[in-house]
Write a structure and sequence with these properties.
Oligomer: heterotrimer
Strand order of the largest sheet of chain C: 1-4
Strand content of chain C: 5-15%
Number of domains of chain C: 1
Structural class of chain B: mainly alpha
Number of strands of chain B: 2
Radius of gyration of chain B: 24 Å
Radius of gyration of chain C: 22 Å
Order of helices and strands of chain B: HHHHHHHHHHHHHHHHHEEH
Distance between the termini of chain B: 52 Å
Helix content of chain B: 55-70%
Shape of chain C: globular
Structural class of chain C: mainly alpha
Helix content of chain C: over 70%
Largest sheet of chain B: 2 strands, antiparallel
Shape of chain B: globular
Strand order of the largest sheet of chain B: 1-2
Largest sheet of chain C: 2 strands, antiparallel
CATH topology of chain C: ABC transporter involved in vitamin B12 uptake, BtuC
Chains: A alpha/beta, B mainly alpha, C mainly alpha
C-alpha cells in the first residue's frame, strides 16, 4: 500500500529551483533512504513534505489524502514525524518533557481539565508519562528523564530527538542525517534502532543520509536526488552500480575512470 | 585558622530546626522594627524579605503556608492600617506583582516579548472607569464642561461583575491584536506591541471627542469603589484595634480590602500558571520559546498557542485594571505609558522570566527601589539643598544643586540599568526558573540496552 | 587627479538620486490622486458642505489648494525619517538586530549640536554673523553632533551588545537595547539638568534658516494661500540626499563596503576570509551613529525644540519607515521614509477635514503604527525587500 506519493513537486527560492519535478513514493513499512550530493535538495524536499515550505507546483499525498497546503502542525497531526539535521531539541526542558511535547497532538486534555485538575487530566498525564518512559527505554535512554536536554551528550540528544518523533505514534518518520557526527559504535546502535522502529512499531522510515555504510546497510530501497530531482531509484546493489549516481557523486568522467580502474585491476 | 566555608554554612542552616528558627527570627525582627519605626526603608525591607526566607529555607509546607498567611493576611494589614505609608507600598508591590506575573506568562513561558502590556491594564481600568462613574452622562460634554450632580450609571457592587467582564474584554483585545501579528518574528512582534500600547494611550488621550468616552488627558473621576460592609470595619477594630493604636476608618479598610483583592488575584495567577505549566499547554509554550520550528514540527499549532498565552496574560492585566480604577477612583492615560510597560518587563527580567518566585521578587525590588529608595534619595537631596552643607573637596554647595535633579523621576535610568546589567551578567534572572522534576519509574530500574 | 576621478564610480553616485526623485514623485502623485478622489466623492456629503460653510469653497478646491504645501512638508519630514531610518537599516542589515537605542543616539546628536550653538549664541557670535558664516557654523554643529553620536554608538555596541552576540535568543540583545535607550534618555536629562539646569533646549535663531522662499499665492475663496518652503527645509532635504548618496557609495562601491556586505551575508565565512568582524561591526555602528547624529541636528533645526525624549517618536517612525521600505535595504529606508512622511502629513492635514473634526492631527503619531502593522501582516519583507525564507 502506498503511504506517501509526490508528483512533480517543485520548490523555488527566487531564481533557484531547489526541488524540481520530484516524483517519489513510499510503501507502508519500508525503510528508504534518500541520498544525493550536497545541495541536491534533499532537506528542502523534507521541508516540503513536512509543510515548512509549500511547493509551487505538484501534489503530495499521504495516506491517500492530499497534505498540500497544510501547516506543519497539521501534517504532524496526520502522522508524519521528523528529526532535524542539526539537533533541535527544546534545550531547557527535561528529556521527558521533550517527549511529552512530541505527544502534543495526541493529548486530549482541555483547558478546563487542566485548570481544575480534573481526573481526566491526571489520568492522561500519568498514562503519557508512562508511555514516554517506554519510548525512552525503546530508544535506549536510561535514568535521564529529569535531565535538561542540553546536558545530554551528543548521542543521547540524537536519541531524544528520535524518541520525541516517535511520541506522537506517527505512521511515517523522517530522519534527516540521523547518524551525522556519530562514532562507529553509535552508528551501529542507531542502525539497529531504526530497524526496530520499523520491525517493532511498524513505522515507515525515510532517511536522508550521507554515510554510505549506513545507507547500504539499512535501506531496502534508495532514491538518489540531484539538481532537485530524482535521478535514480533501486535496491542498494542497483544503486551502487548505477553510472548516473556515480557521476552525480564524483563528477563527469568518473564513470569512465572507474571502468579504467577496474580494467587495470 | 579555620576555613570559612560558605557551602557548609548553607548546608547547616538547611538542617533540622534551624530553618524554622531563622525564618521566625527574621520575621519577628522585621515586624518588630517596622512596628516601632513609622518610616524606615530598612525595617520594611527586612520585614518584606522574610517572605524570601520562607521561600528559600527548607521548612514544612504547613509551616510555610501558615506563616505566610499570617504575615500576608494579619500582620501586614495591621501594620498597614497603623501606618498607611507601608500599606501603600505593599499595595503597589501586590499590584505590580500581579501584572508582572501576568506578563511572565507571555514573556517567560511563551517567549513573546510584549512591550505594550499595560494596554490591557488600560482596557480593564477604562472599562470600569466608564461604567462605574458618571462618564456615560458626560458623553455629550467636552471635558470640564459637564454639570455637577450627575448620577452614577451603575450601582457600586457591579464592580465584581466588571472584574469578570474585564477578563473577557482584555482577552478579546489580546486576541484581536494577536491574530494578525503573532505570526511575526519575535523582534518585530515586540515593536508592534509597543505600537499597540501607544495606540491605546493615544486613544485614551483623544477619545473625548466626538463623544467624550475617556475625558481625555484629565482622566475619569470619581469612579466607584465596591461597597464596604460596615461589619468588616467593626470586626477589624475589635480584634486588631489595640495593635493598630487608633480606630481604623472606612478609608483605611478600603486600602486593606484592595490589598487583599490584589493578593487573591496573585494567588489565582500563581495557581493558574503552575497548573498550565505542568500541562500540554505550558509545555507547548515552553517548546515555542525554545525552538519555534521544532515546536511546529511536533504538531503544536503556533498561532493558536501564542494567542492563548497572549490572551491569558492580557486577562490578568484586565482584572488588575478594574482593581486599579476602583482603588484609586481615578484613571488617566498617564498610568498606561510605555514606561509602565517597560517597568513591568524590568520586574520580570530582574526576577527571572518564567520563575514565579523570581517575578514576585523582581516586582517587590523594583517597586521598593522606585517608591522607597529613589524617593528617599529625593527627600534627602532636597533637605541637603535647604541646608548650608558643602561637598568638601570640590567646594560645591548643595543649595546650588539644580532643582531638576530629582532622583524620584529617574525611573528610566533605573529600568535601563537593570535591563542592561541583567542581560549581560544574569539573563536568567535573580531566581532562575526550574523545570519540574517528575517521579519516574525508569529512573529507579536498571535497564539493559 | 585623473586617477582620482576614474576611481569614483559615478553610477553609484547618481543611482540613488534618480531613485529618490522617482520615489518622491511617485508617492506624491499617488497620494494626491487618492485625496483628490476622496474629496470629489465627499464633495456633496456633510463633509463637503461643512467646508463650504467654513471656507466658502468646495471640498475639492480646498484639497487642491492645500496640496502643494502638504507635499513639500511631507517630503521634508519624510527625508528626516529617511535619514534616521538609514541608521536602523545599516545595523539591521549587518546584525539582524533592531538597535532600539538608535533613537537616543539621534537625540544625543541633537543635544550636542544645539548645545554648541547655544554656547556660541551666549558668546554673542551667532547674532552678528552673515548668512554664509551662519551656514558654516551650522555645518560645524552637524559635524559635532555626528561625531558625538558616532562615538556613542560604537561605545554602546562595545558595552551592551557585543557581550550578547552569541545569545540563544534574539530577544536578549533587543532587551539590552531597550535598556540602553531608557538609560540614555535619563542620562541626557541628568547631564543637561546638572550642567544647564534645564533639559528642554531650543535651537537658537540665527542666519536666514527661518526665511521662506515664496513660490506664489493660490486663491481659496476670499483668502490667499501662500506657497513656500523654508530655507531650513531645503537644508534638511539636501543634507538627507547627501547622506544617502554617501552611504550608498560607501556600502556599494568601496572596499570596506564590500567587507560590510560580506559580514552581513555570513559572519563566520567573512571571518575565515580574513575580515575582522568585530571591526566591521563597530564601523557599521559608527556609520549608523554618524547618520543618526546628523539627523538629530537637522531635526532640531527643523522643529526647534528638543528634550531628552525627543528621539522616541521619530525613532519609532523611522523604524517603521525602514520596515516599510524593506529593512536592511538602504534604498528601501529612503523610500519608506518618504512614503511615511507623506502619508503622515496627508493624514495630519486632511484627516480632520474628512472626518469633520472627529479625528485629526492628534492621531498622526499612531498613524505610523497602523502602517507598520499592515506592512508586517501583508508584506513583511517591505516594499523593496526580497522574500527570504528561514532555514529549517
Amino acid at each position: 500500500m502506498t503511504l506517501l506519493k509526490t508528483i512533480d513537486v517543485v520548490k523555488r527560492f527566487g531564481g533557484l529551483t531547489a526541488v524540481n519535478k520530484m516524483n517519489f513514493s513510499l510503501e507502508k513499512g519500508e525503510i528508504v533512504s534518500i541520498i544525493g550530493p550536497n545541495g541536491a535538495g534533499k532537506t528542502t524536499f523534507f521541508n516540503t513534505l513536512t509543510g515548512i515550505y509549500s511547493p509551487e507546483e505538484g501534489t503530495i499525498e499521504f495516506d491517500n489524502k492530499s497534505i498540500l497546503g497544510l501547516r506543519p502542525d497539521q501534517i504532524a497531526d496526520r502522522g508524519i514525524s521528523r528529526t532535524f539535521q542539526n539537533i533541535r531539541l527544546f534545550s531547557n526542558m527535561t528529556v521527558i518533557e521533550n517527549i511529552l511535547v512530541g505527544m502534543h497532538p495526541r493529548l486530549t486534555q482541555s483547558s478546563l481539565d487542566i485548570l481544575l485538575r480534573l481526573p481526566a487530566f491526571k489520568k492522561e498525564e500519568s498514562i503519557s508519562e508512562k508511555k514516554a518512559e517506554e519510548i525512552m527505554l525503546f530508544v535506549g535512554l536510561k535514568n535521564v528523564g529529569n535531565e535538561l536536554a542540553k546536558n545530554l551528550p551528543y548521542g543521547g540528544q540524537r536519541r531524544v530527538e528520535v524518541a520525541r518523533a516517535l511520541a506522537a505514534n506517527p505512521q511515517l518518520i523522517l530522519l534527516d542525517e540521523p547518524t551525522a557526527g556519530m562514532n562507529p559504535q553509535e552508528t551501529e546502535d542507531a542502525i539497529r534502532l531504526f530497524r526496530r522502529i520499523r520491525d517493532e512499531k511498524g513505522i515507515t522510515v525515510l532517511l536522508i543520509e550521507h554515510d554510505m555504510r549506513v545507507v547500504m546497510n539499512i535501506s531496502e530501497r534508495i532514491s538518489v536526488m540531484d539538481y532537485g530531482g530524482l535521478i535514480a531509484e533501486g535496491t542498494p546493489a542497483e544503486i551502487r552500480s548505477n553510472p548516473q549516481v556515480i557521476e552525480a557523486y564524483l563528477g563527469r568522467g568518473a564513470v569512465a575512470n572507474q571502468h579504467e580502474v577496474k580494467a587495470v585491476q | 585558622m579555620a576555613n570559612f566555608d560558605l557551602n557548609k554554612l548553607t548546608q547547616k542552616i538547611q538542617q533540622g530546626v534551624w530553618p524554622i528558627i531563622i525564618t521566625l527570627a527574621h520575621l519577628i525582627l522585621g515586624v518588630t522594627l517596622v512596628y516601632l519605626n513609622p518610616r524606615s526603608n530598612l525595617a520594611f525591607l527586612l520585614m518584606i524579605s522574610s517572605f524570601l526566607s520562607l521561600y528559600a529555607l527548607k521548612t514544612p509546607v504547613l509551616f510555610k503556608l501558615v506563616t505566610g498567611a499570617l504575615l500576608a493576611l494579619v500582620i501586614i494589614p495591621v501594620i498597614g492600617v497603623r501606618n498607611i505609608f507601608y500599606l501603600e507600598v505593599i499595595f503597589q508591590i501586590s499590584v505590580f506583582s500581579a501584572l508582572a506575573l501576568g506578563l511572565n506568562i507571555v514573556v517567560g513561558f511563551a517567549g513573546l516579548l510584549d512591550l505594550g502590556y499595560v494596554a490591557f491594564y488600560a482596557v480593564g481600568a477604562y472599562l470600569w472607569a466608564f461604567f462605574g462613574s458618571q462618564q456615560y452622562y458626560v458623553l455629550h460634554f467636552a471635558p470640564g464642561t459637564q454639570p455637577s450632580n450627575l448620577p452614577f450609571l451603575l450601582p457600586s457592587d457591579m464592580f465584581y461583575l466588571f472584574i469578570f467582564l474585564a477578563i473577557i474584554a482584555a482577552a478579546l483585545t489580546g486576541i484581536l491584536l494577536g491574530t494578525p501579528v503573532l505570526r511575526l518574528r519575535g523582534d518585530y512582534l515586540a515593536i508592534v506591541t509597543l505600537g499597540f500600547g501607544e495606540v491605546i494611550r493615544v486613544l485614551a488621550n483623544n477619545l473625548d471627542k466626538p463623544l467624550n468616552f475617556t475625558n481625555g488627558p484629565q482622566g475619569i473621576t470619581p469612579i466607584q469603589k465596591p461597597p464596604m460592609p460596615p461589619a468588616f470595619v467593626d470586626i477589624f477594630n475589635s480584634v486588631f484595634g489595640r495593635f493598630v493604636g487608633h480606630t481604623a476608618s472606612v478609608a483605611d479598610m478600603y486600602n486593606v480590602m484592595f490589598y487583599i483583592y490584589a493578593l487573591v488575584v496573585i494567588i489565582i495567577i500563581i495557581v493558574v500558571t503552575r497548573r498550565l505549566n505542568d500541562s500540554k499547554i505550558g509545555r507547548a509554550w515552553t517548546a515555542i520559546r525554545e525552538d519555534e520550528t521544532a515546536a511546529i514540527a511536533m504538531g503544536i499549532p503556533l498561532v493558536k498557542m501564542k494567542l492563548a498565552a497572549f490572551a491569558t496574560g492580557a486577562s490578568f492585566a484586565g482584572v488588575m485594571g478594574v482593581l486599579l480604577a476602583g482603588s484609586r477612583t481615578f484613571v488617566s492615560p498617564e498610568s498606561f505609558s510605555f514606561m509602565q510597560s517597560i517597568g513591568v518587563l524590568t520586574m520580570v527580567i530582574l526576577g527571572g522570566s518564567g520563575s514565579i518566585p523570581g517575578v514576585i521578587l523582581g516586582a517587590a525590588t523594583v517597586t521598593i527601589l522606585n517608591l522607597q529608595i529613589l524617593q528617599g534619595l529625593s527627600l534627602y537631596l532636597s533637605q541637603l539643598r535647604q541646608s548650608d552643607a558643602v561637598i568638601p573637596i570640590i567646594n560645591f554647595a548643595w543649595k546650588n544643586l539644580s532643582n531638576q535633579l530629582d532622583p524620584a523621576k529617574y525611573q528610566r535610568l533605573l529600568f535601563g540599568l537593570i535591563l542592561i546589567l541583567m542581560m549581560i551578567f544574569r539573563p536568567e534572572g535573580l531566581i532562575p526558573a526550574k523545570r519540574q522534576k517528575r517521579e519516574l519509574a525508569s529512573d529507579k530500574v536498571e535497564v539493559k540496552g | 587627479m585623473k586617477r582620482l576621478f576614474s576611481s569614483i564610480n559615478i553610477r553609484e553616485l547618481l543611482r540613488p538620486i534618480g531613485q529618490l526623485a522617482i520615489f518622491s514623485l511617485g508617492s506624491a502623485v499617488i497620494l494626491s490622486a487618492i485625496v483628490l478622489l476622496l474629496a470629489l466623492i465627499m464633495d456633496k456629503t456633510a463633509v463637503g458642505l461643512g467646508v463650504l460653510a467654513r471656507f466658502h469653497v468646495s471640498l475639492f478646491t480646498y484639497t487642491l489648494v492645500n496640496l502643494p504645501q502638504v507635499l513639500i512638508d511631507g517630503l521634508t519630514i519624510g527625508f528626516v525619517y529617511a535619514a534616521i531610518a538609514l541608521g536602523y537599516t545599516m545595523v539591521y542589515g549587518v546584525l539582524e538586530f533592531i538597535n532600539f537605542a538608535h533613537s537616543e543616539i539621534f537625540a544625543v546628536g541633537a543635544f550636542v549640536g544645539v548645545e554648541i550653538l547655544i554656547f556660541l549664541d551666549g558668546l554673542g557670535i551667532l547674532s552678528a554673523v552673515p548668512n554664509w558664516a551662519a551656514f558654516l557654523i551650522l555645518i560645524g554643529a552637524i559635524l559635532a553632533g555626528m561625531l558625538a553620536s558616532g562615538l556613542l554608538a560604537v561605545a554602546v555596541e562595545r558595552v551592551a551588545y557585543r557581550p550578547l552576540r552569541g545569545a540563544s535568543s534574539r530577544l536578549v540583545p533587543l532587551i539590552s537595547a531597550i535598556g540602553v535607550s531608557f538609560f540614555l534618555q535619563d542620562a541626557i536629562r541628568m547631564t543637561e539638568s546638572l550642567t544647564t539646569g534645564q533639559f528642554n533646549r531650543i535651537f537658537p535663531t540665527f542666519g536666514n534658516f527661518d526665511d521662506r522662499l515664496k513660490f506664489g499665492e493660490l486663491p481659496m475663496g476670499a483668502n490667499m494661500i501662500t506657497l513656500g518652503v523654508s530655507i531650513k527645509s531645503i537644508i534638511v532635504i539636501i543634507a538627507a540626499v547627501l547622506m544617502l548618496v554617501g552611504l550608498n557609495y560607501l556600502v556599494n562601491a568601496t572596499k570596506i563596503g564590500k567587507a560590510i556586505r560580506a559580514v552581513a551575508q555570513d559572519r563566520t565565512t567573512a571571518n575565515l576570509m580574513g575580515i575582522n568582524v568585530n571591526y566591521i561591526i563597530s564601523f557599521t555602528f559608527l556609520v549608523g551613529g554618524l547618520l543618526g547624529g546628523a539627523a538629530g541636528v537637522l531635526y532640531a533645526l527643523k522643529f526647534t525644540r528638543i528634550d531628552p525624549f525627543v528621539g522616541f517618536f521619530p525613532g519609532l517612525k523611522a523604524f517603521t519607515a525602514a520596515v516599510l521600505g524593506g529593512i536592511g535595504n538602504i534604498t528601501g529606508a529612503l523610500l519608506g521614509g518618504i512614503v511615511l512622511g507623506m502619508l503622515e502629513t496627508f493624514a495630519g492635514s486632511y484627516l480632520g477635514v474628512f472626518t469633520i473634526g472627529a479625528a485629526g492631527t492628534e492621531y498622526k503619531d499612531i498613524f505610523a503604527f497602523g502602517i507598520l502593522i499592515l506592512v508586517l501582516i501583508f508584506r513583511p519583507q517591505g516594499l523593496m525587500g526580497e522574500n527570504v525564507s528561514q532555514k529549517a
